[in-house]
């Protein structure tokens, strides 16, 4: 998978240790991550009863130190792979008239970004618990997460 700037919205890294409140103030706008939904460690649904959508570890690596590990809230959207961006008209303005009807729904979510020390993970992960009941799984889909 090739990473492009569309996968991770870059924020200025901080050299200071911050409290959770200070970290929230630093996020003046959502931190957006887009990546493929992949199989995780198999604990969310099976062991904990909380199904999560796991973002591709390569995308999580690209976050680096831009965002502290922790539990965050925000919004997410399953984006069709073929239409990851809204159609553009010739003057560069986003055409929201026709795209609005086919735009995927936005769901509330809570996500964990980190190593899950309870399980001694060695790989940092981003796992989103989407506040919506889905009838089927969506492995291989593209998930856009806006961490607030």
Automatic annotation (TrEMBL):
SUPFAM superfamilies: Riboflavin kinase-like
Domain Riboflavin kinase: 26-148
BP GO annotations: FMN biosynthetic process; riboflavin biosynthetic process
Iron in keyword set: no
InterPro entries hit by this protein: Riboflavin_kinase, Riboflavin_kinase_bac/euk, Riboflavin_kinase_dom_sf
Keyword Transferase appears in the UniProt entry: yes
Domain of life of the source: Eukaryota
GO cellular component labels: mitochondrion
EC number: 2.7.1.26
Pathway: Cofactor biosynthesis; FMN biosynthesis; FMN from riboflavin (ATP route): step 1/1
GO MF, one example: ATP binding
Alphabetically ordered keywords of this record: ATP-binding, Flavoprotein, FMN, Nucleotide-binding, Transferase
PANTHER family xref list: RIBOFLAVIN KINASE, RIBOFLAVIN KINASE/FMN ADENYLYLTRANSFERASE
Name assigned to this protein: riboflavin kinase
Organism (species): Medioppia subpectinata
